[in-house]
């Protein structure tokens, strides 16, 4: 629990213990109203979508989800490691799903609309001014786990094989030894497979995201072949390290912001939600589609592409990997989070309501992930898999990212002095990088210091990407390979959706680990440089301040 968010003020100077206890009890009773509440399951009849995203209505009330005690244990395998028999099943399952009429809640079309409704501000509640949005906050991981769970149950039932699982698209695996993880598998990318139309194929994809090109987890521009991959593999590894290890040391950094019932929306996603989740979405969508970046790069149509589900299976796996990494990494325990509920159609077209609490343990859901190496965890070994490739830059590839700025200790204090403090509101990031300083709260390192950039306002229908650097004032768009790179903000466009007026987002950046890594854990101020890449919006934001988390 982060102490800065403590909802209720402590009363000091109370004379009577009894009065104090009574006050505490009263505050506890009041807190739920002050803070919000868990989300009740949305009702489809209260769905209003301008894009036709509302799922088919079902008059029967949802049945509560039961843990699947009678299902066999299932193992989701890496997409690059599956065999021909599996591919045949996988194709058959999606073939059958595509053949269902759109009005069937199990159809791919209806599944995609379900995702769209949950992310498009379509679910209204009679007693809340704001619709539900499951991205940009702490529901990101559990909601998508539920969505995939039912999607997978539907596929399994269509082919009559309860052991069937989705594969996970292992884009975080940069090993250059075939079969490659960081490619779209050919059985998903070819229009025809065994001379038949491929049900996993989707026309609306970025040519540069299809084989033989690799996925660029961060910048999302250009076509990168294995033979000319050079630093891409290393950059991808470093991004993974930043998003899973150094930048995600606490639950709130990884899971994203608190989001309670009747709030306007999630106020900012966690590290992984932005990148690589968001960046891979944008990178795989077709930039030349009528709506740029359809399908994968627009949340309202992304789930029309079967790639979506393999992408999210990897996200779901990485959640599990993150939890297993130790330190402060654990799931959230806020009761509003645990008790929030969402509804889905199951394989029998029944509506089921699931609470977040029910999906936190994979063991309870009776599935797991094939064990694969996660080489990005250890920055000193990044280069290990890379050595066999001829034109790889060995020196750079096998080491941690090098510092790019050449600041010495005296320059550091000079830089701190020369960097302005920000105003409390009205700050703008445009195409010019912006450098500023923030006063630190705990240079002793016993708390985790988190920089929060608040009230970010952009055009939510467009892409936006910001890279952040520590003590590297001359950083540019191509500096992500520097040790000073420490966080990225990535927004997936929601082409048809207009956010509520006044909707803003905040961005949390973990400072503590990065300052240690840079050998600057003693500095009084952090100097931050923000660089907008791949977009040229006038990005407005409020303050930038530091929070402490236990
Ligand atoms: Cu609900 Cu990858 O988005």
Automatic annotation (TrEMBL):
Q: Where do the Tyrosinase copper-binding domain residues begin and end?
A: 135-152, 305-316
Q: Which InterPro entries match?
A: Di-copper_centre_dom_sf, Polyphenol_oxidase_C, Polyphenol_oxidase_cen, Tyrosinase/Hemocyanin, Tyrosinase_Cu-bd
Keywords of this entry: Copper, Disulfide bond, Metal-binding, Oxidoreductase, Signal, Thioether bond
This protein's cofactor list reads: Cu(2+)
Entry keyword Signal: yes
Taxonomy, superkingdom:
Eukaryota
GO MF terms held by the record: catechol oxidase activity; metal ion binding
Show which residues constitute the signal peptide.
1-36
What family name appears in the similarity comment?
Answer: Belongs to the tyrosinase family.
Q: What is this protein called?
A: Tyrosinase copper-binding domain-containing protein
Q: Show the taxonomic lineage.
A: Eukaryota, Viridiplantae, Streptophyta, Embryophyta, Bryophyta
